[in-house]
Amino acid sequence: MTSTHSNEAAVLDSDQDVAASLSLQLHTLGIRARYYRSRQRLLEELDRRRPQLVVLALEPGRIDGIAVLRDLARLGYVGAVLLLSGVERKVVRIAERVGRTLGLLMLDSLPKSFRLAELRQRLDGLHPLPRETCRAEAGVAPRIGEEIERALTQGEFLVYYQPQLELAGQRISGVEALVRWRHPRRGILVPGQFLGSMTLEQYRRLTRCMLTGVMADVARWPTLQGLDSISVNVTPEELMSEELLLLMEELRAGLAKAPPLVLEVTETAAMDDELLGGEVAARLHLHGLELAIDDFGVGFSSLARLQMLPVSELKLDRSFVSHLQEEPLDAAIVEAVALLGRRLGIRVVAEGVESLATLEALARYGCTHAQGYALAPPMPAEALAGLLTRRAG
Asked: Which domain of life is it from (predicted)?
């Protein structure tokens, strides 16, 4: 019988001292660490032990971390992956993008010299894998599809909100609506643990649940109506759906002063899909819906194309923000995007703010808004309403 070690991390690193230090810190956070020097040994034991986390070192001339990512995807690994980096940020970003493209749950990477608080923040929201999680033909837990269907039917998906701070006025100016799954056995699950297992139809139903929940919260808590915007993530397929516009008109009809709703799509999706540069984006704008480009900076945008899109917001990817004060290249990119936003009249929101000290640098470089755990974590609507009330007082 295959054993389950869902509260275990597999650490692949050729540096024994680094691995020992990491193992001690993981133990402090309640996670057992199993150390591997050999890529082959890790892969041999992956299906048998099924760790909830794989920590993978990126080092020149030692372990080919990108090849390991491909191995993990090939074997259908469904846990989280954390890159521990000793190389320059450009290489780390490529590795992160490869992992996400392969369908892996990639956590924000860490430098080799990190603090316990940084490790804790990366692992926040990470839950033990269920006992039935194993390697299946499609790399998906056998029962996950049935569980998602039940969750949609029984209302197990929740709307959480993460505040955005306007740097100039130091006020909460908007929120991003984020989905959470209140699983009956596994507790609160984050999107990376289930979105990749959803069918297109299930994702469409989830989007409608999210929009309905957001509008219900706006109607229930008047304090939410003081916000400038509420953002919701959607796919290009959703944006091209006539049903989405009809639903939004129906939901907004009963609200006199609902905050503007901002529909977020990733930079890659916005620039690859020709329809978003034409009829669809224009119709959204005419219906009073704003468009935001998420993860900006990790794709390859055409600036001429961006100028033509009725975009109200650019969300600067967290990979540029988290090392802003240590990496001159990241600082240069942040400053350039902020300048672009000002010239085009577009809000620039810096995502992934993990330190309050970063806010001063963001304001200096011209960013107008910020979002991240250092300001406030995602929270239920009740907690957000209380936070807004306290801030107003």
From this structure: Bacteria
pLDDT in tens, 334-392: 898 888 888 888 888 999 888 888 888 898 888 999 999 889 999 999 999 888 888 77
For residues 276 and 282, give the distance between their C-alpha atoms in angstroms, rounded to a whole number.
8
Cβ neighbour number for residue 367 with a 10 Å cutoff? 27
Is the Cβ–Cβ distance between 23 and 11 less than 8 Å? yes
Whole-angstrom distance, CA of residue 51 vs CA of residue 105: 13
CA gap 200, 56 in Å, rounded:
31
Do the Cβ atoms of 265 and 294 come closer than 8 Å? Answer: yes
Contacts of 341 (CB under 8 A, 6+ apart): 314, 347, 348, 366, 368
**288-302 b/e (C-beta count within 10 Å ≥ 16 → b):** ebbbbbbbbbbbebe
In angstroms, the CA 266 to CA 235 distance is: 8
Whole-structure pTM value: 0.68
HEC string for the chain:
CCCCCCCEEEEECCCHHHHHHHHHHHHHCCCEEEEECCHHHHHHHHHHHCCCEEEEEECCCCCCHHHHHHHHHHCCCCCEEEEEECCCHHHHHHHHHHHHHCCCEECCCEECCCCHHHHHHHHCCCCCCCCCCCCCCCCCCCCHHHHHHHHHHHCCEEEEEEEEEECCCCEEEEEEEEEEEEECCCEEECHHHCHHHCCHHHHHHHHHHHHHHHHHHHHHCHHHHHCCEEEEECCHHHHCCHHHHHHHHHHHHCCCCCCCEEEEEEHHHHHHCHHHHCHHHHHHHHCCCEEEEEEECCCCCCHHHHHHCCEEEEEECHHHHCCCCCCHHHHHHHHHHHHHHHHHCCEEEECCCCCCHHHHHHHHHCCCEECCCCCCCCEEHHHHHHHHHHHHC
Structure tokens at 220: 């229930």
Regarding beta strands 171-183 and 229-233, do their DSSP bridges make them parallel or antiparallel, or are they unpaired?
parallel
